[in-house]
Design a protein that fits this description.
It contains 21 helices and 18 strands. With 590 residues, it is α+β, with helices and mostly antiparallel strands. The strands form 5 sheets. It has a 6-stranded mixed β-sheet. A 6-stranded mixed β-sheet has the order 7-11-12-10-9-8, with helices on both faces. It is globular and about 70 Å long. GO terms for molecular function: ATP binding; protein kinase activity.
Length: 590
């Protein structure tokens, strides 16, 4: 059998080859963060004026935040008619919305040159930049590129009191859309945790139609906070659609799991061009990732290798922290700087009842749950990295605070905790993951790593991918956390970075890293292979070494040579699955 390269396998696993359907408008994606780029191939300057009509009734969404939390304030900010806004949201014209309430905003959308837009104006406040106005004040309903394009004022000349034009992102249906009875397009503001399918369900829209409207596909459907997603509507939106949907139903029965598991089989088999699933989850991962030239490199993983950790950097911590907090408003996404009283109130003065694990506490801020982590060391490095990332599979940092030598980081709350609580569970407390949940979690982690390796500038390596650093939200979607050990992926002139400071967790570190200090994205790929094995077997990697008394690659090779694939597979897989995984996994020997 000829095996693909590590890079090729990783890319194939993440992205199946599929031609994109011609779109009504391109999705803006991460282009909103590059204010200097005026290229409109991703609609950063606005949606193209390619609809059936030059003007139309359109709708926006907006999440109420003081001082923009009343009908009159939101109407004035977004140039909407207050009577229409109050009517469609089923409130009075004097109503005040709860903080973070999703509000529907009717606007007149028309062509201005080559772009659709709804026009409003804004008076610049002290400290404003085009980026802050687009993302903080208007939440992504405009972009810094569009603001620069329509206002002949340099950022440094944005003086307080200056009135500027704000083109709001809207569009009119194309002929193809009107042919299928689409009457309106709604510009939905994406927030952390949103998916195209969940947004479509909220507005009773077919997911495929939403994907096509934004130039996306099932294989390329990642969306980011502070961006707009066009939702094609056949009917007027209603206030009932602004209410958060109910939680998902309980896990399916074993019979339905088998059915949905087979769906995953067909998806993955198609994505990998006919390679059988066992080859994917077995031979490819371990023979490509784990097997190395016949050195004694693998043995290092199971030896008592010293597990090095970064030491806190204490030099001028207080001064550096103060300087960092003063400059934080200029960082992308403009993190909120909390005060200690706010965090004390959120955690009931860091009460034991709010304690989660380690130095992490559960808190409630503005009615929303959050995870508050007390840290020390070179924390600004982690803050700067997380503050440049907008990805649903990477934990979201929302705020910071520094007090008495300690940093406090406020993260989104992952209701189901770390992955290791679910795959190593032996307490009989009902924490069990189905086959489909495990596959989805692994795909989420792979997608998050692909973003970290290929779409952050510069590329980064997490260096500590393991089950305890994968957090699960209320829908069991995975989020990569704990970036304190993250490093740049490349050295000078694109070469591998070298280090003598080996950091990470024993059992997850690649041999070439342990031996030579090579730092590259392959470190995370190797750790992902270990994570995959643990997730499928329900055992920690150290236990697997001890139980099998052989290298992980040898374990797989032995199974590949076994005549009875089903027997080997049952021995290999987590017994808590009770056989509820696709039997096609053992078909490799045919």
């Amino acid at each position: 059998m000829t095996f693909l390269s590590v890079t090729s396998i990783f890319i194939i696993l993440l992205f199946s080859s599929c031609s994109l359907t011609l779109a009504q408008q391109p999705y803006v994606g991460k282009a909103t963060t590059d204010c200097a780029n005026r290229d409109n191939s991703t609609s950063a300057l606005g949606y193209f004026c390619n609809g059936l009509n030059q003007s139309c009734q359109a709708y926006l969404t907006f999440r109420s935040q003081p001082p923009y939390n009343t009908v009159s304030a939101i109407s004035a900010l977004l140039a909407s008619d207050p009577s229409q806004l109050s009517q469609i949201n089923s409130v009075s014209e004097t109503a005040t919305f709860q903080t973070n309430k999703l509000v529907l905003v009717p606007v007149n959308c028309s062509c201005s040159g080559e772009f659709y837009q709804a026009n409003t104006t804004y008076v610049v406040q002290h400290g404003d930049t085009y980026f802050l106005i687009a993302n903080n004040t208007f939440h992504g309903l405009s972009t810094c590129q569009a603001l620069k394009n329509q206002n002949n004022i340099l950022t440094r000349n944005l003086y307080s009191g200056t009135r500027i034009n704000i083109p709001l992102r809207c569009a009119c249906p194309t002929k193809n859309q009107t042919d299928v009875d689409v009457k309106y397009l709604l510009s939905y503001l994406v927030i952390t945790g949103d998916y195209v399918a969940s947004i479509s369900d909220r507005f009773d829209v077919n997911t495929e139609g939403t994907l096509k409207a934004n130039g996306l596909s099932e294989q390329n459907s990642i969306i980011y906070p502070f961006t707009t997603l066009l939702v094609p509507l056949q009917d007027l939106p209603s206030s009932s659609q602004t209410v958060a949907p109910p939680p998902p139903p309980p896990s399916p029965t074993s019979s339905s799991e088998k059915s949905s598991s087979k769906t995953w089989v067909y998806v993955l088999v198609g994505a990998l061009g006919g390679i059988t699933l066992l080859s994917v989850f077995g031979a490819i991962i371990f023979l490509a990732f784990f097997c190395r030239s016949k050195k004694k490199s693998d043995s290092i993983i199971v030896s008592d290798h010293v597990e090095a950790r970064e030491k806190p950097l204490h030099k001028k911590v207080e001064e550096d922290a103060e300087d960092f907090l003063e400059s934080i408003s200029s960082i992308a996404q403009s993190l909120k700087v909390y005060n200690f009283n706010e965090l004390q109130h959120a955690t009931d003065d860091f009460s034991p009842s709010c304690w989660i694990k380690g130095s992490v506490y559960r808190g409630k801020i503005n009615g929303n749950l959050a995870a508050i982590k007390k840290m020390e060391g070179n924390v600004p490095k982690e803050i700067n990295l997380l503050n440049t990332i907008n990805h649903s599979n990477i934990i979201c940092l929302s705020g910071v605070f520094f007090n008495d030598g300690h940093w406090y980081l406020v993260f989104e709350y992952a209701a189901n905790g770390p992955l290791n609580d679910w795959i190593y569970n032996s307490n009989g407390d009902g924490k069990l993951l189905s086959w489909t949940q495990r596959i989805q979690i692994l795909l989420d982690v792979a997608t998050g790593l692909n973003y970290l390796h290929g779409f952050t500038a510069p590329p980064h390596v997490h260096t500590d991918i393991k089950s305890s650093n994968i957090l699960l939200d209320s829908d069991f979607r995975a989020k990569i956390a704990n970036f304190g050990l993250a490093r740049l992926a490349e050295g000078q002139e694109g070469q591998f970075a070298l280090t003598k400071h080996i950091i990470g967790t024993r059992g997850y570190m690649a041999p070439e890293y342990l031996e030579n200090g090579f730092v590259s994205t392959k470190l995370d790929v190797y750790a992902f292979g270990v994570l995959l094995l643990e997730t499928m077997t329900g055992k920690e990697v150290a236990a697997l070494y001890e139980e099998e008394n052989m290298q992980l690659s040898d374990v797989l090779k032995a199974m590949l040579l076994e005549e009875d694939g089903q027997v080997s597979l049952r021995h290999f897989m987590d017994p808590s699955l009770q056989g509820n995984y696709p039997s096609e996994l053992a078909s490799w020997s045919d």
